[in-house]
């Protein structure tokens, strides 16, 4: 017997009329409501999604009245299968946006500013890693506090224009590069409720199928972009209070501002740099810096931008990141612990110590508009901290879709098999040897594990392809060498544990997103992980305890953490449910963190 219910939300499942949602003209907006959530009202009034469910589902899963399958009104529930022609995470989810109707609990700041972010990434349209999430989340939080915020982004060829609302050509101008003035277009549009200015040069820069890795020279492209943003401000008479630059890609902008554009017409702005990962320095030859109109030889000194590691070499090199540190009015990194680590190690530590008075560590937040299990358009069942029963259905839905479970209802036995999820770039920083070991250990403990991530290094990719061939046909492990925004939402909702065994981690978002979705973190104590996850068995910090933490980089340390985590899950159900409720209630939103950025902006503004 099938249960029939009316559909009141969009984007989870897909019937014959779901193709209509791919038309951007038919997109529905998700609006931030006064409860700081997302309203899905009228999102699928034109489409009825059919999903098949068994009548005994609610009794076996314990679906609750709020946040449940019934509450959100799905018509007929059909369990996915790994043999489906289209994988369950690719079945035509609607595009969605987040409009900025201000939640009542977000107070407007009294001293309002104009802030422009200059960045290589922005979620969701140009996202490679956490940088894109941070830029979008911080921009939205400052908008909600009443500030005027714009994001300036290269108009990558790979950006899907249908994801941009009100895209309009606003300025055509020339910007300098390598002895020539390049015709350049500036477009305005809105992405996820945030105003964006897209910079599009007329030559080959930013062409290709991906944000990074095009056939052009990336360093030279970002040098052009940094100057093109300042040139646009000058041409249009735009004088923001703050220009907020991110990572090495925009590290040349502070140099260009203070040594060129400040002497022309841009007098008001002050520069804030956020360093998201100190391992990317932006190595640059002097003649490359010359291309943007600066004299590269003037910056080849210890107190400016020379790469200390290359002193005495032929040729010596510059570091755009170091130059950005020296020339910015304030420098932020993404957690207090990572700040301490960077002051004590790495070749940039001397520069950071010299500029310690303007160097601050602020833990990132997460964008609670995009990451909200109570309104997430990608989930088969919604849930929240007060009632997370729908999470069980999400987990079984993912298990069915990946071939880790079978049957048309959620058996009690499935709930006794912990699901560990690891969503990460497969690079050395992320603790590859521990991720590989976790596959074996989770299987030995009788759990299941799903890894979602891409390996930019072909050797790492080859190693993980071997693990795919070894494990992906079994009943315990799935390794998906890809990235999918849709699948990541589903995996966070399905996970019992989120594994983050990084060797170093400037901040980390996975552990915070995981907690938002009721996944208890298992992390190595480093950087931002040490600032956001506190061990369950640490009695002095019992009030803050929210995960399982280990310190060593050896396999035994990971084994002990996973063993404690599995024992708690299986042997202490009441305590476990309390932990899940507790981690879901942790406020890692940008609203808290944005206030600290606002204080920095205020401290340096003209």
TrEMBL record:
Gene3D superfamilies: Glycogen Phosphorylase B. Pfam families: Glyco_transf_5, Glycos_transf_1. Residues 114-342 form the Starch synthase catalytic domain. Its main location: plastid. GO terms for biological process: starch biosynthetic process. Keywords: Amyloplast, Chloroplast, Glycosyltransferase, Plastid, Starch biosynthesis, Transferase, Transit peptide. It catalyses: [(1->4)-alpha-D-glucosyl](n) + ADP-alpha-D-glucose = [(1->4)-alpha-D-glucosyl](n+1) + ADP + H(+). Its EC number is 2.4.1.-. Pathway: Glycan biosynthesis; starch biosynthesis. GO terms for molecular function: alpha-1,4-glucan glucosyltransferase (ADP-glucose donor) activity; alpha-1,4-glucan glucosyltransferase (UDP-glucose donor) activity. GO terms for cellular component: amyloplast; chloroplast. Residues 416-568 form the Glycosyl transferase family domain. InterPro entries: Glyco_trans_1, GS/SS, Starch_synth_cat_dom. It is found in: Plastid, Chloroplast; Plastid, Amyloplast. NCBIfam families: glgA. HAMAP family: Glycogen_synth (MF_00484). Belongs to the glycosyltransferase 1 family. Bacterial/plant glycogen synthase subfamily. PANTHER family: GLYCOGEN SYNTHASE 2-RELATED, PTHR46083. This is Starch synthase, chloroplastic/amyloplastic. It comes from Prunus dulcis.
